[in-house]
Each structure stands twice: as C-alpha cells, then as structure tokens.
Amino acid sequence: MKYALITVRKIKNIKNFFPYAVLIEGENLKEKILKGFKYYNAIIFIGSIGIITRYLKLMSKSKLFDPAIVVLDEKLRYCIPLLSSHFGGALDLSLRIEKEIKSISVITTATDTQNLIGIDLFARRNNLIVDKKENIKLINSKLLNEKKISVNLPNYFELPKYYITSEKADVCYESGGKILNLIPKDLVLGIGFHKNENADYIYKKYLELIDVKFRNRIQILVSHEKKWNTKVFHEFSRKINVTHTKGYNNFELQKAIDKLNIDKENIVKKHMGISEICRPACFLASNNMEELITIKDKNIKFSIFRIQKYWKNPYLEEDIPEVIK
C-alpha cells in the first residue's frame, strides 16, 4: 500500500510520527487531496474533519474504490476512520496509529462498536473480495441481530468464534453461499504500454479486454521498473484499486525471459533492452506460476498469472517512486 500524509498547516517534525507515509507538500490543500486520491491507497489527514469533508463531496466515488482516510487533530489526540473504513482499511490504519502514537480511535460503525468483525472487514483483512457487495449489509445486520453467521471457508482462515461453520452457509468460499461468496485475490496483472499513453486510456482498454472474472481477483500490478516509475502506472493502479505494485529491472526480467523461452528479437528489445515485460514480470511476481491470459492491443499489453500463494497481508507497505511524491 501507498500511504500519504497531508496537513492543513505545517507541523514541525510531523513526518516522524508516520515514517511509512509520504508527506505531500507544495500544492494548495485541494491539490494535495487530489494527489492523495489519484496515487495513494490511504491518506492520513491532519486537520479539521469539516475541511476534508467538503473536499470529499467532490472526490469520493465509492467505498469500494476510495482510498482509506483517517483524520487526526493537530495534537494527534484523536484519530477518526472517515472514509472507506473496512474495504479501504481506514479502521485498521486508525488502530495502528492508536497503537503506535497513543492516539484515541473514534469509531462509530455498528459492527466495530459491538466488537464484531463484519464480513467486509474480514474480507479486507484476508485479501478477499465479496462477490455480491450489495448483500454485505444483510450479513452484517444478521451478525448484529443474531450475533453469529454461518460460513463455509477453508480451514486455514482464522475465524471469529461467532462465524459458525456449516455445509450450507450464508457465506462460502468462491461459490455456493446463500447470501454471498468470498473470492481470493490470487492473480497478478502485468502491463506494458507506450510512454505517451495516459491512465484513462489504459483503464478503458483494461475494461474492454480483461474479463471481470479476472479483474476482481487482481492482487498485484507489475511492470518494468521504468514503467513503475511513472505517474501513469500508479494512477492506473488506483483506478483498478490494486494495493500492491512492483517494478523489475532488466537483469531480473531477463532471467524470467530465459525460463519462459520468449523470442529475444523484437521491437520491445530495441527500446527497453529486453524482449518482453508483461509475462516475465508476472512470472516473477507469481513465483513461477501459470499464465492465464496475455492480450495485446496496439500500444498496450496485459498478462495475468496465478499467484502461487496469495498474500494474506493486505496492508503491506511498498516503495514510493519519486515521480508521485
């Protein structure tokens, strides 16, 4: 995940409290928040909750795609998960801040205040997605009213005691759930594009070319390190709501190219020094797993591989390229 730190006023040494976040400086406040939405998965906002709320009216699209936003006062006494509390991870970020700098988390969501892990929060913490998102409220309401829900999930998941295992369950793994299913984010997406392409066009092609059955399961977005170090790459990663990205250098990619026995003489090699980006990058990120699909359309190429073992840490911090700082 990429974490941004935004302050209304300059606060001395504020970065020391959040070493994992990039302090966005230089622009006016609106531009800072826009930048946070555009490139980062989570925003730590220091200032009035009323100020950022006014901006959110212009920028917020959906709790499924908005970045996590937590708000703190300038004294760092209180921490409020304001936006995308469960799906985006604002609640867990607030709890992390509470633990690390002794702020007090102000939590108002019904399941959280009752010390219950709602199905959306369980999914987020285990890198799962919900297939019927409109039914989340049905499960969480049942949990609030009955203090239990029925599930049929693999035994490697650590279940709350009020998640009762059943053959015919409200919630199942991949399929069969009476109310909804939980799907693992177990795919890696590789991307290659010409330097003049913009994120909107790449996203348009992504929706046209990649089936939704793949789109919902993307865990990590990868490419050449030169592509990774562009604004376009990270803007696209936010558009598809991927929280992990990685760029590989020529030496790393060439090893994968040799193993995949890819044609070594083509136009890509003339520009990048290697014959392909997408498939070898996916091969490395997936830990040498199977290729599911590779599609090329003019100046854009996508590859999807299955990950050998999908990541269970949904909040893994990653490097931030200078171009978006």
Q: Could you give a short description of this structure?
A:
This protein is of the alpha/beta class and 325 residues long. It has helices at 29-39, 49-59, 90-101, 110-113, 119-125, 136-146, 199-209, 212-215, 225-228, 231-239, 250-260, 267-272, 278-285, and strands spanning 3-7, 21-23, 42-46, 68-72, 78-83, 104-105, 128-130, 149-152, 163-165, 171-173, 180-184, 187-193, 218-224, 244-248, 291-297, 300-306.
Task: Provide structural commentary.
With 325 residues, this protein is α/β, with parallel strands linked by helices. The protein has three domains: 3-108, Rossmann fold, CATH 3.40.50; 117-184, Udp-n-acetylmuramoylalanyl-d-glutamate--2,6- Diaminopimelate Ligase, Chain: A, domain 1; 187-309, 2-Layer Sandwich (Nucleotidyltransferase, domain 5). Helix content is 34%, strand content 24%. It has 13 helices and 16 strands. The protein has helices at 29-39, 49-59, 90-101, 110-113, 119-125, 136-146, 199-209, 212-215, 225-228, 231-239, 250-260, 267-272, 278-285, and strands spanning 3-7, 21-23, 42-46, 68-72, 78-83, 104-105, 128-130, 149-152, 163-165, 171-173, 180-184, 187-193, 218-224, 244-248, 291-297, 300-306. The protein has a six-stranded mixed beta sheet, sandwiched between helices. The longest helix has 12 residues, at 90-101. The radius of gyration is 21 Å and the shape is globular. It starts with a strand and ends in a 19-residue tail after the last strand. Keywords: Membrane, Transmembrane, Transmembrane helix.
